[in-house]
């Protein structure tokens, strides 16, 4: 059985949000003496009971960035840490990297930890790229010879060879993160910790980083903790998932399960509305809606909606006038109000009663994002009977499959068309170049 390399028990971190005076000079002096001179915990700081606790008189306002976390990571496992902004992901990585200390609980780590937490961590701004590579190696406990053996590989990966002797404070953020990633990934740490580095780089760099992380994890059997807001990147790289919500561990398990649970919980939708009483229903003297519903054709019942999911829109309306030619337009808008398409139904002659309609948006057609649907009911293909705006809303998650690039995909739609490349001729071009 694989060895446990990170063990986290009842881990909590409380941040103090500003310091409020105690109201007594003697206590303020006591606080200053203890925290500033003796570098000890504030005697008037009390642990809060909730996520954010308002400061009572004399206490600081405090926030649980992490609360009672328990989990263990085994050698060679690749963990994706997910959660909304402010959930505590970076705080957890900083504690595991020993950059900050927990307020409570125990963390046991085994082996050399290399962290790439934010642009700038670990590098000394006044030192050159070359000096920083050696410095990082020494911090990891490597000898000069060991770093030298990796030096060329690091430089080649980072692509900053022309700036090796320039102080890193003069690097662009892109150059900085390239070198920092190259150092973190090549110096053979036992545990590699990466926080959102992919957000900084371009598509080519993202691809290179993910490839390198995969190699570090799968070929070298090292342990990786990876924070990203890209679920596609997390699913593609990691085998375990950990979901933090307001500092608490909401779920842990296989990456697919945890990412699914997270996406289902964050997806906003208004997928069904129905009315039994026409007097209460949206409409007018011509028609009134009885029901509108968005039915996703999910492969698994608890999966989130993603760009592969076919979506069927079903609706019914009461038609109050006989012998009328009616058609309906289904119009899809992005959340920002851009019209993606306007699909008309057939025009049919109806008698008074209930009219039902159904239209399916195929899977592998829309881009990821938030959308809303409006239904326009039309008489004789020209005259509006009723516009039911914004009647359904939904969100589609991204899905990349084999594609190893996780930037925002361009376009209002993302259709999958038959598209092949074939070699139609062989030549000696390569030899001539
Ligand atoms: N030094 C600090 N002092 C006070 N509060 C802090 C400090 N660092 C983080 N926090 C707070 O702790 C909470 C957790 O922050 P953290 O940066 O760990 O979240 P995160 O999940 O990494 O967020 P994001 O996805 O936005 O990077 C947030 O509410 C944040 O405002």
TrEMBL record:
One Pfam family of this protein, by short name?
A: ABC_tran
Query: What are the UniProt keywords, alphabetically?
Result: ATP-binding, Nucleotide-binding, Transport
InterPro entries the UniProt entry points to = AAA+_ATPase, ABC_transporter-like_ATP-bd, ABC_transpr_TagH-like, Bact_Polysacc_Export_ATP-bd, P-loop_NTPase, Wzt_C
The superkingdom listed in its UniProt entry is Bacteria
Domain ABC transporter per the UniProt entry, residue ranges: 45-271
Does the UniProt entry include the keyword ATP-binding?
yes
ATP-binding found in the keyword field: yes
The molecule here is called ABC transporter ATP-binding protein
Q: Which organism is it from?
A: Hymenobacter telluris
